[in-house]
Protein: Octanoyltransferase
Amino acid sequence: MTNGCFLWEISKKPVPYPAALTRMQTLARDIRADEAKERVWLLEHPPLFTAGTSAKEEDLFNPHNYPTFEAGRGGQWTYHGPGQRIAYVMMDLHNPHGEVRARDVRSYVHGLEEWVIRTLATFGLKGECRDGRVGVWVIDPATGLEEKIAAIGVRVSRWVSWHGVSINLNPRMSDFDGIVPCGIREFGVTSFEKLGLNVTMPQLDAALAENWRTVFGSTPSALMPLQDE
Structure:
C-alpha cells in the first residue's frame, strides 16, 4: 500500500487489552493474506501494565493491583491508561513505505520514532532518541531533567507489524510508579500536561495523521470510528 491510502481507525471507549491483542493478531493475519488493509488504530486502554519479552518480575510493584498482561512485543514493562494515546500500527513490511525500507525492522522502528518526534515538534516539543534506551525523550525546561514522553514496542509476524507507540498526553502520572518503565531506573516519565501544554486528544490525533504522510509516504484515510465492544 505504499503511497496509497492507509486506513485510520479510532476507538472512542477504552479498549480492554485482551480484545486489542486479539484484534491486532487477526488484522496482521488478514493483511498478510491480502484480505485487509494496512492501518493505524488509535485508542486508549483502562489502567493496566503490559510485559514485553524482556520484562523482569522485580520491576513490577503495582500498588493498585492493576491487571497485567503478557504483550508478546519487544521491551519490558509499560503502563497504559486513560490520557495516553495508543497508536497500534499494522503495516506490511514487504514493501518500502516512505522512509521505511522493505523487510527492515530497524528502519521501521526508526520510522515510528521519527513519526513521534515530528508530531511532538508540531507542539513545540523537541523529542529525541537515545542509544540503549527505548522510547522518545524530552528535556523538561523547568527542571533540566530528561524524561520519556513516548514508548515504542513492536512485534513483526511474517513481515506484518503490530503493536506500536504510546504517547503521554495527560495520564495520571502517579500510575507509572507501579513499574520501572521499560526497565530504566535512572530517568523519569513526563507528559504534555506535565510540561505545561494544554493539548487535546483530537489535536494530537490530527498531528499524528499529518506527520504520518511525511514519514511513511501514504495518505491517512478519514478517521473511522469503530463499534467498540
